[in-house]
Amino acid sequence: MATPLKAKVAAPRSNDNIVQGVKYNRSSSKRNNFEMVAWLFMRLSGVALVILIFGHLFVNLMTGEGVHRIDFGFVGGKLANPFWQVWDMLLLWLAMLHGTNGIRTIIDDYAQKDKTRAFLKVILFLASAFIILVGTLVIFTFDPCPTGAAAELLPSFCPAP
Amino acid sequence: MPNTPKNGTLYRGREGMWSWVAHRISGIAIFFFLLVHVLDTAMVRVSPEAYNAVMSIYKNPIMGLGEAALVAAIVYHAFNGIRIILVDFWSGGTKNHKTLLWGVLILWAIAMAGFLFRHLPIIFGGH
Ligand code: HEM
């Protein structure tokens, strides 16, 4: 059946639930709006990620001796600080969810067979869940002063063994 | 025959399409780096020696150039992402999308110049 057009109405409105006796489910509460939420999430997380990533890159690569100064002592010092724990956790979660949803879109775009798409997405979701879990555990169960480690490898605030 | 700008397409083969191609490729590249990067950082949970050993892989000029390429991809993706958001939400976005793209490229060039000015001496300086 051809889509019934509503005469003299310039554009469909989001509350047009019934047009010429045909029921549309726009804006009904039963509607699954996952894709709209995902679209919005890509934009909101994008804005937050600009700040989180630029801060991350600046502190790790631009201050001190840049990448050459990154070692256990440096990272231990950062992750012992609740400010950087929260920063890194937000960065991890938002970047992983944003990236995972972006790859999901790309899989949907290019994988044409139902089975291929489902298979690729299962791999994607498992990998992402694993990385988010490992990353979060590292941030919160990390010990900057492990016992038995050589003192010169540790952050300067660790008590002498 | 494919549509070319000469026979009237607004998108295909033009700024809109290429900025999207670059956004997609940079997004994929950043995602795969992020998977590796969370795992290399996870070595802090194993031992200081394990973490320092992994980090020493990053401390040579070849990896340094890889970092520069990664930062270039991230900075492009970030600025172009802001452009996409402006096109979606700002009423003048679609009308000015080409100007916005030039803005993205100019800001990208400035940010990269500042970054490389600091990063190249670090990776080639041999600390
Ligand atoms: C720096 C801040 C970032 C901003 C402002 C940003 C912004 C965006 C925007 C607006 C989109 C388009 C979404 C859509 O069309 O619905 C997008 C897509 C995407 N982003 Fe990001 N993003 C950022 C960081 C990241 C990071 C860190 C990753 C990887 C972990 C990533 C991976 C992706 C992927 C894979 C896509 C899908 C590309 C496509 O569908 O063509 N982005 N991003």
From TrEMBL, chain B:
<protein>
    <submittedName>
        <fullName>Succinate dehydrogenase, cytochrome b556 subunit</fullName>
    </submittedName>
</protein>
<keyword id="KW-0472">Membrane</keyword>
<dbReference type="GO" id="GO:0046872">
    <property type="term" value="F:metal ion binding"/>
</dbReference>
<keyword id="KW-0408">Iron</keyword>
<dbReference type="GO" id="GO:0009055">
    <property type="term" value="F:electron transfer activity"/>
</dbReference>
<comment type="similarity">
    <text>Belongs to the cytochrome b560 family.</text>
</comment>
<dbReference type="GO" id="GO:0006099">
    <property type="term" value="P:tricarboxylic acid cycle"/>
</dbReference>
<dbReference type="InterPro" id="IPR034804">
    <property type="entry name" value="SQR/QFR_C/D"/>
</dbReference>
<keyword id="KW-1133">Transmembrane helix</keyword>
<feature type="transmembrane region" description="Helical">
    <location>
        <begin position="60"/>
        <end position="79"/>
    </location>
</feature>
<dbReference type="Pfam" id="PF01127">
    <property type="entry name" value="Sdh_cyt"/>
</dbReference>
<dbReference type="GO" id="GO:0016020">
    <property type="term" value="C:membrane"/>
</dbReference>
<dbReference type="InterPro" id="IPR039023">
    <property type="entry name" value="SdhC_prok"/>
</dbReference>
<keyword id="KW-0479">Metal-binding</keyword>
<dbReference type="InterPro" id="IPR000701">
    <property type="entry name" value="SuccDH_FuR_B_TM-su"/>
</dbReference>
<dbReference type="InterPro" id="IPR014314">
    <property type="entry name" value="Succ_DH_cytb556"/>
</dbReference>
<keyword id="KW-0812">Transmembrane</keyword>
<feature type="transmembrane region" description="Helical">
    <location>
        <begin position="20"/>
        <end position="39"/>
    </location>
</feature>
<feature type="transmembrane region" description="Helical">
    <location>
        <begin position="99"/>
        <end position="117"/>
    </location>
</feature>
<keyword id="KW-0349">Heme</keyword>
